[in-house]
Amino acid sequence: MRQSPLYICRRNRECPSRHPVEPSAKYADPLCTILFSIIVIITTVQLFRESLAILLNAVPLSLSLRTLHCELANLDGVRSVHHLNVWQHTTQQRVMMVHLVTDYRSDRNEILQAATKLVSGPRYNVWHSTIQLEQASA
Ligand SMILES: [Zn+2]
């Protein structure tokens, strides 16, 4: 039975004629592997973070939830804000849900338009918003 040359080389560690290796080049392969691994890690960390934030429905890093809460609460006719949630649906689409408690005398359509204009503007860039208006008791 004839054995393959590879098997023979594994058994007989000294086969310089079939696989000549330069002693100075024996670190080239692991160094290239490490170098390319570092390049891949560096170039994919941002994508990985964005993907993880989308999967976890996290608040987008570029958005201040506290500032948005204050700006919504400062709209004319809004008494308070609760249940404010903002998350990234895709890398381009941001989604928001909020409850606004309004004065009983205020124009609810104006509040809705003002809130929609605020969140869909360039500052917050919300692609889809669900705004629930709740009328405060007198
Ligand atoms: Zn509510």
TrEMBL record:
Can you give the residue ranges of the Cation efflux protein cytoplasmic domain?
71-135
Coiled-coil regions in this chain? none
- For this entry, list what GO says about its biological process: response to zinc ion
In its UniProt record, a GO molecular function of this protein is: zinc ion transmembrane transporter activity
Task: Kindly indicate whether the keyword Nucleus belongs to this entry.
Answer: no
A single GO CC term for this protein reads: plasma membrane
Give the InterPro entries listed for this entry: Cation_efflux_CTD, CDF/SLC30A
Q: Which UniProt keywords apply?
A: Ion transport, Transport, Zinc, Zinc transport
Name the family: Belongs to the cation diffusion facilitator (CDF) transporter (TC 2.A.4) family. SLC30A subfamily.
Q: Which protein are we looking at?
A: Cation efflux protein cytoplasmic domain-containing protein
